[in-house]
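Checklist before submission:
- one chain only
- standard amino acids only
- sequence pasted in full

Submission:
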Amino acid sequence: MFAAKLALLAFGLMFCTAGWAATPAAKKEEIPAIYYQFAVFPLQDCGGNPLAVARDLVRKNLRNFKMRAPTHDPAVPHVEILFIKDARATYPPPDAELIQYFGRGLTEKDAQDLQNSKTALVLNFSHSKEHALTGMRDALAYTERLASHCKGLIWDDITREIFTPAAWHEKRIQAWAEDGPEIAQHTVIHAYKNTEFIRAVTLGMQKFHLPDLVINDFVWSNNHQMGDLINLIGQTLLEGGKLEQDLSISLNIGKLRNKKMQRQLQAALMDNAAAEIKVPLKMAQTEERG
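Returned file contents:
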């Protein structure tokens, strides 16, 4: 029954046109790039010169990255570090409402201290598609070290989540198993009412050079199944699944390399349900919420 629901409702599934698809005029030697931004909001003194501290940690812990502004030809991964002296005016931390829904591991005191944070260290990472996994793993580990050093909180600007270093480590680093990352740990799904039906859209796929996904026009009672479907497609793409010429994709739970996600999805299947389906997709436009 679960697989049947997926097969029927998946006709509403579309690719969003994500920022990664909008590239500048290509150079002959240009390498497709991945761009994402993390930030650390220090809750205590980060040292006399926070920018120097951050750069020193790059030299010690992020040796595969060059310290300069992101480029469109990142044969070598890059990180740009910006120190924001007046964060409340120019790079404000997430507010209490967002923390309530997208705060990861924060105590009430953390949330209060964050609102009083005066500075921020903004980290702009870029690297090629070939470094999608190694670059991301290095960037995650570096960001955790910087936040731990500064007793700060970590902001993922793409997924709009705020983490304690411990929650960041558990969700983003520790959960990265030998069989690769679980896409659901690095993305979020926002579901909201769009006219009389529900729309669900991912945030964060672009960090792996993949398009975000959206399902339109379903009912709240199918929200959990739609989340499972989106994560299955996202994981399949992350593990190298390819679209066919007609933009369909074959999904097979049993062939997932990430065993944790495989077990979770298999447990959701009803008796006699097929664990393999072919889903038609199509391009879609991004939609701004008011």
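Reviewer check: Residues 33-174 form one domain.
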